[in-house]
Batch of 2 targets.
Target 1
Amino acid sequence: MNAITPASAERLVRVPLGERAYDILIGPGLIARAGREIAARLKGRKAAVITDENVAPHYLAALVASLEAAGIQASSLVLPAGEKTKSFEHLMTVCDAVLTARVERNDAVIALGGGVIGDLSGFAAGIVRRGVRFVQIPTSLLAQVDSSVGGKTGINTHHGKNLVGVFHQPDLVLADTDALNTLSEREFRAGYAEVAKYGLIDKPDFFAWLEANWRQVFAGGAARIEAIAASCQAKSDVVVADERENGPRALLNLGHTFGHALEAATAYDSRRLVHGEGVAIGMVLAHEFSARLNLASPDDAKRVEAHLKAVGLPTRMGDIPGDLPPAETLMDAIAQDKKVKSGKLTFILTHGIGQSFVADDVPSSEVLSFLKEKHP
Ligand SMILES: NC(=O)c1ccc[n+]([C@@H]2O[C@H](COP(=O)([O-])OP(=O)(O)OC[C@H]3O[C@@H](n4cnc5c(N)ncnc54)[C@H](O)[C@@H]3O)[C@@H](O)[C@H]2O)c1
Ligand SMILES: [Zn+2]
């Protein structure tokens, strides 16, 4: 199991946020080494590990053993898997477990899991005792390249997704790339949509590299570590430029306006659509919509679609199993997701691959007629 890792296989991305700065370590074997890495950085010697029922059987025992071996007293809480766990009810359970474990401000809450566990545990870490230390051990590709970095935490309410939460940066992120071996192929692909997104936002060379190397990224090894490190670096750059999303951080929402509308239209039913799949379709739509507004060449939209299709992601609304509501209903979801100011919407549009920008004057009538045209 615990093969000695050649140091060259591992990557470190530092998020330089002043007194909230932290390291992201990316590579194999990090769960087995987590105790040492955490003990070297945090003063406290207690930790509450939060995980879910899919991840626990694979990695919880190894993590707890690693913590105990480093002198960190560990308690653990295993929650149900899935988006519904990001709720007030489970937030209470987590806060209670953290307090029962007598975790104090220099001790840590450790999130071992995907974005659901990360968002929920990070929120609890941000509010218990007005903030305790927080370590992310992301186990899904999406969490390794996106949700574990940047400090956004939160839960869902019946008003919508992620509406209650706090900014609470982690003190350390350990992205153990071996953990991805037990992730389903579908969840891996969905996370890959967010990897491609970084190229499409402002890194055309990275997108071209992915077009050439995606098979190796899917296979594992050095190319996978490289893609995750490049993604974490890209996310870190955006977060450092705009920690609380007053401006450029919005670029991370490329493809997400259409994507969220499709997630809502499928009632967040993961059998039909998971987040990254919605983002894949959304990114193709964002490029097509930009071409329709004469901002970008239609060839770029074709190139984006060809790549996402090659990796096996859905790229068209018609790829979603089952019927979709009419374009008007999708438009309502977009209008709810966004602040509509006198018929104008804020959208992430593009001048081409790697040339995205924030447009805040998109007429909603244009969006609606585009959706009607694209509706299956
Ligand atoms: N905070 C942020 O900045 C941010 C950014 C993007 C997304 N998010 C949030 O992240 C969530 C989605 O994250 P996700 O896609 O990781 O979802 P998830 O946490 O539900 O994980 C997906 C599935 O994979 C399973 N899983 C995770 N790791 C595994 C492993 N190594 N082996 C086997 N199974 C494993 C989980 O149990 C779950 O069933 C959403 O709630 C979204 O809102 C947050
Ligand atoms: Zn996303």
Target 2
Amino acid sequence: MRAAQVSKLEGPESIEIVDIPEPAAYPGGVVIDVHAAGVAFPDVLMTRGLYQMKPELPFVVGGEVAGIVREAPADAHVRAGDRVVALTLLGNAMGEVAVAPAQMVFRLPDNVSLEAGAGILFNDLTVHFCLRNRGRLAAGETVLVHGAAGGIGTSTLRMAAALGAGRVIAVVSTEAKAEVARANGATDVVLTDGWLAAVKELTGGRGVDIVLDPVGGDRFTDSIRSLASAGRLLVVGFTAGEIPTVKVNRLLLKNVEVTGAAWGEWVMTHPGYLAEQWAEVEPLLATGKIAPPQPVLYPLARAAEAVASLDNRTATGKVVVTLR
Ligand SMILES: NC(=O)c1ccc[n+]([C@@H]2O[C@H](COP(=O)([O-])OP(=O)(O)OC[C@H]3O[C@@H](n4cnc5c(N)ncnc54)[C@H](OP(=O)(O)O)[C@@H]3O)[C@@H](O)[C@H]2O)c1
């Protein structure tokens, strides 16, 4: 099969399109003819060996796919011919065939295309975990999301209202990204420069209930300052590169929380959680209460460029690589 593979840890440009044998089915594994694979920031980090998961070289890039089941175990909840989305967590996605554990494979609603489907699981279930579980989002609360035109950002914009948020404020670095944020459902959009003052003004000085932060870096302390009393700052990632530190007196003085939100760790340590999440998110997708992502598509031959677009900050929305 054709696949996007990394054989040296030199960043996205080291991704090569190669012909390799199809992966073998394993007990409990579902074999999928892959139509599309999602790209996420951990893929960038993995091409440099900088992510917490470090697969042996060479490895196939990507952690999530959408496609058609070719073969499934007799007792699985999916069967040959089903349209599915699946997690390969992580690596082993951007090939024409992938194998995923049955508990990480889900039927895709008919109203969602395979290309859009490839952009759902990784980000939407992270955001669902962040807002529901770690952030305890209550009806009518205000959510602010950094990097709002990115993968996690646009997921937050698409999902927050359906999960109960009353208002979703997007923080983005450029006017072009502001357009993307609006198109994905932001109630308000502010630019990174001067974002704290703008948010204070928008909220009449009150601040926001939840900050979902996939960016980190030097805006972190201002994120704490942007919280309303009893607000929660969710630590999701560090695309800015720098890992911030917290002066805990700020938490005490304002009655606010800084909370880690590592979805992959939770999934691995809480069997059955993924299925619970899908049982809630799937009907919202199927009924259109959560709009499907509108991914930017790259053919497999341009997989390196697709991953590089997240590295060089030019990506907007979810990026997906198509294989069929
Ligand atoms: N905790 C979890 O369970 C979990 C799950 C999935 C992903 N993540 C993490 O979430 C983060 C976002 O992932 P993603 O797939 O949404 O990434 P993405 O699509 O590339 O979006 C990231 C956003 O970060 C902002 N950014 C600020 N400084 C940047 C820089 N120096 N380089 C690149 N982007 C920069 C950009 O927005 P502006 O240009 O508008 O600032 C960009 O749109 C990553 O750190 C990833 O590892 C965590």
